[in-house]
Amino acid sequence: MGDPIQRFEDLLVYKKAFLLQQKLFEESKSLPREEHYSLTDQILHSSRSIGANVAEAWKKRRYRAHFVAKLSDTDMELGETEHWLHTAMANDYLSVESHDGYIEEYAEVGRLLGSMMNRPAPWLLNPQNTSSDS
Questions:
Q1: What DSSP character marks residue 55?
Q2: How many domains does the chain have?
Q3: pLDDT at position 54, please?
Q4: pLDDT tens for each residue of the chain, 134 residues long
Q5: Rounded distance between C-alpha atoms, residue 104 and residue 106, angstroms
Q6: Alpha-carbon span 23 to 30, nearest angstrom
């Protein structure tokens, strides 16, 4: 078995989300200048929020409800990022091949998130604590 997960940076879902964020940052440099304050900002914001929300979820793992809610927020940002990628492709700013590659990679992040939301106990500090109160 691998090393135990000590930090959010050790999570596979975080590593994949961070890598995709960086790929999109590079891709965004080729978007038209007139899209800088609209589409480009939207793609960058939502893609960066995925990893940031995973990090926040990790810090909220004392309570199942808080942890799962933050992962749900993460999944929402993932969906928003996919929407903006569809928009970029529809406007010929992103090739079909690039678009499809990103969508497949985000699908993998989504599967990892879904697994964590459906079975959060292994990630929780106190798996028996299902309360959201302190």
A1: H
A2: 1
A3: 98
A4: 456 788 999 999 999 999 999 999 999 999 999 998 899 999 999 999 999 999 999 999 999 999 999 999 999 999 999 999 999 999 999 999 999 999 999 999 999 999 999 999 999 988 776 555 44
A5: 5
A6: 12
Spatial contact of 83 and 76, defined as CB atoms under 8 Å apart: no
Per-residue confidence (pLDDT) for residue 134, from 0 to 100: 41
Contact status, residue 13 vs residue 112, Cβ threshold 8 Å? yes
Closest Cα to residue 2, out of 16, 12, 15?
A: 12
Q: State the Cα angle at 20 between 32 and 73, rounded to 5°.
A: 100
Domain region containing 119: 8-123
Task: Compute the distance between CA of residue 122 and CA of residue 116 in angstroms, rounded to an integer.
Answer: 8
DSSP label of 5: P
CATH number, domain with residue 42: 1.20.1440.60
Q: What are phi and psi of 27, to 5 degrees?
A: -60, -35
